[in-house]
Write a structure and sequence with these properties.
The structure holds 2 protein chains of 2 kinds. Chain A has 2 domains: 13-182 and 261-337, TIM Barrel (Alpha-Beta Barrel); 198-254, no CATH class. Chain A has 10 helices and 15 strands. An 8-stranded parallel beta barrel of chain A has the order 1-2-3-4-5-6-7-14, surrounded by 6 helices. Chain A has a 3-stranded antiparallel sheet with strand order 8-9-10, with no helix packed on it. Chain A is globular. Chain A has helices at residues 21-29, 55-67, 85-98, 108-117, 134-144, 157-165, 189-194, 269-275, 289-308, 317-325, and strands at 13-17, 34-37, 71-76, 102-105, 122-125, 148-150, 170-178, 210-215, 218-223, 226-231, 247-249, 252-254, 261-264, 279-282, 331-333. Chain A is an alpha/beta fold. Chain B contains 6 helices and 5 strands, in the order ααββββααβαα. Chain B has helices spanning 11-17, 23-36, 91-98, 104-109, 119-130, 144-154, and strands spanning 53-58, 63-70, 73-76, 85-89, 113-117. The longest helix of chain B has 14 residues, at 23-36. The chains are: A alpha/beta, B alpha+beta. Chains A and B meet through helix 1, strand 8 and helix 9 of A and helix 4, strand 5 and helix 5 of B.
């Protein structure tokens, strides 16, 4: 350890989603520093039909990314049971054998396995681990040597800064993409209605439970038969999750849990850079290559511009307009990062 | 890359086409799909589609293209009744999806794409198509001159 070395330049990695090889290549082409991906099974939290990588696809993806100086992070961020644990261990082995630059884990048991079986493999703490304090992050660092933690989207910018200041672990934050109730790793809403959820089977509102139907009153969204929303003509629609539905409460029908909205932290970039975050993550492994290309290109330009001259940085209106277009919900928001009343 | 402009087919087009037989355009569609099947479009991941009735509704063109996947390939379907999966969008948006200029979720959020019936099948189709590595095509290739140039190259 060279304590006297000058601090590393304030570089921020752009971490982009890849649900398949064309999306991975779009991320690489448009300026991602890292792409994150998953296998075609319930070892990752975007386990949707037809999505993700088989062994050969991931091998090609890693080859392509590395040839362009881009890292590949593999999300193995669901929670195995005792019976299924060996399959998750094999997934860690496959990731290491294929040359993934890091695995993104949530389960402490799996972290222990990865740390022991593959001491050279970088471990990132998934947002699914729901670690919001530096004490929790330092615990994972002490026991399993994690190198990076992805913060849940529930902290204010000041709280993010406080975490960064008290941990040797690199901090990654979400910059853009869909929001939900943000009880990541602990949310039981999808499992309650459908029997499947993000934490154990890797799918919030799995396709088999979702039905849309055009009716005389509008387009109805049902989740395992439960009506979660009805859209009038022209109203923007949202992902078919329980938390983003409209319900009758106290005689009124409204978003009783969460209004669909997208996170967009472009305007906070200088503040996040000053706080010392090391990476910004773009949500959306379920999205198509077109989305990955559009969003990666804008964020690449924004990060480069911000790091060149943070004082003069302001998001270009064209960026905001294009990002709004691909966003879920009526609005974009700064999420928990901005708490002006604090 | 040339971006596809926003357009809607004029209302009379849809009104007229919707009264015409829908079988010939469905035949053209399945012929194109069968050319791609096993070459550009992988067959194995689509096996859950076997025997399922699919309808593509081109809203502004007045087209309702029905087809299904059989053991030997795609077939135009005449069967009445509810399809297993129905995907509705305007001609421009289907084209933008095919060109990978638009993300289906983006179109869905803005109510320009509707998927009814078996959502699992819809996700399978969407994700299987998204996983295909296509040669770079842009909207310019669909200009009359671009098409003629490509036909000349094919001779």
């Amino acid at each position: 350890m060279n304590q006297a070395a000058a601090p590393a330049p304030a570089r921020i990695e752009l971490v982009c989603p890849a649900g398949g090889l064309p999306a991975l290549k779009a991320a690489v082409e448009h300026g991602a520093d890292c792409v994150y991906a998953g296998f075609k099974d319930e070892t990752n939290a975007r386990n949707f039909t037809g999505l993700n990588f088989d062994q050969a696809g991931l091998r090609e993806g890693i080859r392509h990314a590395h040839a362009h100086g881009v890292k590949v992070l593999l999300a193995l961020n669901t929670y195995p049971t005792s019976a299924s644990f060996p399959r998750w261990e094999r997934a860690v082995d496959r990731a290491a054998d294929l040359g993934a630059d890091a695995v993104i884990l949530a389960d402490a048991g799996l972290m222990e396995y990865a740390h022991r079986a593959h001491p050279e493999l970088r471990l990132h703490l998934s947002v699914q681990a729901s670690a919001t304090s530096y004490e929790a992050i330092n615990f994972y660092h002490r026991h399993f040597g994690i190198r990076r933690a992805v913060l849940p989207r529930v902290l204010s910018a000041a709280q993010v800064e406080n975490v960064v200041a008290h941990t040797p672990v690199e901090i990654e934050v979400f910059g853009f993409g869909g929001l939900c109730v943000m009880v990541e790793g602990r949310c039981a809403l999808s499992a309650y209605v459908t029997g499947d959820g993000p934490n154990c089977t890797g799918a919030c509102s799995p396709g088999k439970a979702v039905r849309w139907e055009q009716t005389a009153e509008g387009v109805e969204t049902r989740l395992n038969g439960v009506l979660v929303d009805r859209y009038a003509p022209g109203e923007r629609s949202a992902y078919p999750t329980l938390c983003k539905g409209r319900y009758q409460v106290g005689g009124q029908t409204y978003y009783a849990i969460e209004e669909p909205a997208s996170l967009n932290t472009l305007e906070l970039l200088p503040e996040l850079a000053r706080a010392g975050i090391r990476a910004i993550k773009i949500e959306g492994r379920q999205r198509s290559p077109a989305y990955v290309a559009q969003v990666t290109r804008i964020w690449r330009e924004a990060i480069d511009r911000c790091l060149r001259d943070p004082a003069a940085f302001a998001p270009a209106p064209a960026w905001i307009a294009e990002l709004n277009k691909v966003s879920e919900g009526q609005t974009h928001t700064l999420g928990a990062y901005s708490r002006p009343w604090k | 890359m040339i971006r596809l402009p926003a357009f809607t087919l004029p209302a009379p087009v849809g009104a007229i086409v919707s009264r015409l037989p829908q079988f010939p355009p469905a035949l053209a569609l399945v012929a194109a799909l069968n050319l791609a099947l096993g070459r550009v479009i992988p067959r194995e991941p689509l096996e859950p589609l076997l025997g399922k009735r699919i309808a593509l509704v081109v809203t502004d063109a007045g087209l309702n293209l029905r087809f299904y996947l059989g053991p030997t390939g795609f077939h135009a379907g005449l069967a009445a009744g509810e399809p297993d999966l129905r995907i509705s969008a305007a001609a421009r948006d289907f084209l933008a999806l095919a060109l990978r200029e638009e993300d289906p979720d983006t179109l869905f959020f803005s109510r320009r794409l509707l998927m009814e019936g078996d959502t699992e099948l819809g996700l399978l189709v969407k994700n299987t198509l998204d996983a295909i590595e296509l040669p770079r095509i842009d909207a310019g290739d669909f200009s009359p001159i671009g098409l003629i140039e490509r036909l000349m190259r094919l001779r």
